[in-house]
Each structure stands twice: as structure tokens, then as C-alpha cells.
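Input chain follows. Return C-alpha cells only.
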Amino acid sequence: MTATTLRRGRLSGRLIVVSLGAPAAPLALLLLVREPNLQVLITLGSVFLTCLVVGGFALSRLLTTRYHLTAERLELSSGLLFRSRHSVPPHRVRSVDVTASPLQRLLGLATLRIDTGDQGRGLRLDGLTAADAADLRRLILGWRATGPVTADDGLLCELDRSWLRYAPLTVWGVGAVLAAAGGVYRTLHQMKIDPLSLGVVQDLVRRFGSVPPWYGLLLAALALIALGAACSTLTFIENWSGYELRRAEGGVLRVRRGLLATRSVSMEESRLRGVELVEPIPLRWAGGAKLDAVTSGLGDRDENRRRRLLTPPLPRAAALRVAGQVLAAEGLTPIADGGRSGPIAAEGLTPIAGEGLLGRVGLASHPRAALRRRVNRALIAAALVAGVLAGLGLWLGQAFVTAGWITGLALAAVLTAFAWDAYRTLGHGMRGRHLVMAYGTFARRTVVLRQDGIIGWTITRSPFQRRNGLLTLGATTAAGDGVYKVRDVSVDQGLKLADAAVPALLAPFVEGPR
């Protein structure tokens, strides 16, 4: 009996524009050269042949790729010389994502990615029209689901322009500027160009060469921070413009975002194991946070980290409310909200179930030995830095010795404050069917993990922990980072928590009365 066909198709013919346009670029450059010599002809000829080969492969893929969606399986075939064919049943589909690069958006195209859980080796359809990609995703999600295809259940969160104020508060922007400067310097050095001899650098030396060193370092630091903030803001605009979090058809959470390159990531709610609230410095100081999903079916670990984002940096109260609406699918009852479930678009909203789960009030505190461990680390780090500077003073002069002990005292005070903050952040507990753990200081994290998502425990003990009766309890799960740790708890606390979260799992390995 012939299987019922839900959809049959091929890639869009618009991809021919890209396939044939690539070899034409070197020919256009040749017309712009007034007197081409042999070296120019060889260079452009090699580029033309490379583009011709790449364009030929793209064109052959366009002409030979076919997809066929039936009630039993999704079939994808492609290739001219080396023919490949993939067949995927419904239960293997983990997520269906749609992305579009700037060139694809210009041509009205999109890429459909189907994740099958094979370590990121999913299926890709690169040349679909945007309408066909959206329609095919809807059919696949409905085809995979047990029930009929339904419309979207509703908007959970959308972008608020006021959230742009959190964009400069991500520290990675400064790192991106330093990485870009290092890349430019390395490229110029390989081209036998001395960056210090450039006119711009010489002009800066003439202008600021006579200022005191501390003033020059201050200006350089301010310029670096300003460039990093600008880089972070532009990245925020590109990544999160048009952001929407929606509970969509087929029992999935769908995140759509992007200005130039659009991304649409689908997360199957049946594979959701919890959420993670992330509050890095200085975003935490401004009252902001980010929300990630603890879920499987998003590829390998690196791809999972890139695709599990539920929200951009936003007010902490809004992040808690989004967490409550995401976890509402598990039967949690909203509190202090009157039963409302509208979209998040502004501040001042009363948190629902997410506040009860992610709030720090009521979490069990950790032993004082955990505080001593963090203070000891801080003092050792400060002593090492001071010792290095003091050691240099034996050869370079007394000034380095003085700078060493001053730096050591300052670092000891600052790092001890961070150690105290890290200890205050520690907490754990059971709330209903969820394990809650909090840790970190530079990036404070609160993880909510479902009981049925825990598949095992890992217990680690360093010599210091054994001497002070501490251990680190790791909850193993098939989602997210794989292991989420409750750090530096007492042995009694850790074993009781493990038994409360997954009863009797550790019983065969525990000696003595429980």
C-alpha cells in the first residue's frame, strides 16, 4: 500500500543566482584592471576556477536534491556522482530550526535544519524559499507529534527596546576587541608591516607620548571599554532584533531572533529538563539576567550552548516570569498573578511560578568550611601575584617590592569580597519535583532541574574537602551541560539531598545508617 504523501519538493531555483554569480566575480574584477599582467591573470584565473568548482557543486546539489515527507518517514536524497539518501522516522526528530543568512534573506531563501540526535549530524535543506521552509517545519512538527497539527498556543515573551540598556554590560565585548586587535597585528606582522610605523600609530605617539604613563593607561582602558561596549551593543542588535519566544505547534518552544541573519530554534517541551538563570557581572549589578533552557535534542554540547538561549539580557523580574511560563507546561500553578499568562514585553510584571523555583529564599546554606575554602583561594592568589612582583624587585629595584605588597593587599581585599559573595550565592534544596542549586560569583547561576531528568550522581572530594567533611554532588542528566553540581556541601547534606531527589539511587553505595 502506498504511503500517504504529506509533502514532496525540491530546492528553490533562486539558488541558481548564487551558483552562477560566484564565477562571474573574478571576471568582473578582470574588467576593472586596466593593464593586467601575468601575475594578475594567474591569480584571477585560479580564483575563477575555484569559484567555478564551488558553483558547480552547488548547482549539482540544487538539481539533484529532493525531499519526500510521508506519514511514515522523511526522505532526503541528493548528489550527482556520489548519491546519498537519508530516511528519518518521526520519533527520531528532535528539533526543526529555520535560519537565513543576509544573502538568503535578499533572495527570499532559508535553511531548514532537522536534528535527529546523532551528535549534531542532522539533515539540512539549504535552498528552500522562506514560505516553504516555514510550511515544511509546521508539517514536520505536526507529523512528529502524537496529536493533530494545531496553531500556536501563544506568545510568551517578545523584545522590549528598553532592554538595549543591558547590551553594553556583557564583558565579552572587551575580549572581542582585544582578539580583533591581536588578529590585525598578527596579519600585519606576517605581511612584513610594522604596526608601530603606521601613520595613525605615529600620530597617537606624537599626541600622547609626553603624557604621564598612568594617564595614558587610563585613556587606553577607557577607550577599550568604550569600544567593547559598542561591540556588545551592535552584537545585541544583530542577535536579538525581532526576538520572540512562543509556545508553538507540536508541543515545542520556538525562539525566533536576528536582524541580518534570522534564526528560529525549536525546543521540544517533552525534552525540557529545567531552566538556568544566569546573572553575570556587571549585568547582575544592573538588575538584569538571562534565561537558558536545560534541554536535549539541540545537537552536541557546543551547539546546545549556542542554541539553548531562551531570552536576551533582560530585567530579572521579567526573566523569572518567563521561567514561570516555560515551566507552567509541567503543571505548576502560577502564584500572585491572578492566572494571567500574557506575553512579556515590559518591566514591572509580577513573577509567577519561576520566582518560587528560582528565588533564593529558603535554599539551604552551605557549611562555613566552604567559605574558608574560597577565602583561602583568594589569599593564595593575592600572595602569588605579590610574590612575583616582589621577586622582580630583587633584580629591578625597590619600586617593584613596594608595588608588590600594595598590589597584594589590594587584591586580598577585593578577592576576599568576591569569595564572601561566592559563599553567599551557594544554596540548594528540593522544591516540589525540582532540584534547585545556586553557585558562582562572576556569573551567578541558579539551576532548576526536574527529578525525572536526573539519571545518576557523581561525588567528588578533594583532599581539602575530605579534611573538612565536604563533597561536591553532581546531578547527571542527558540535557544541557550533562552534569550540574552542588558544590561544597557536607557529607550528610549531600547524601540527604541525593536521596530526596532520586530516592534509593545511592542506597547500595552508602555505608552505615541513612
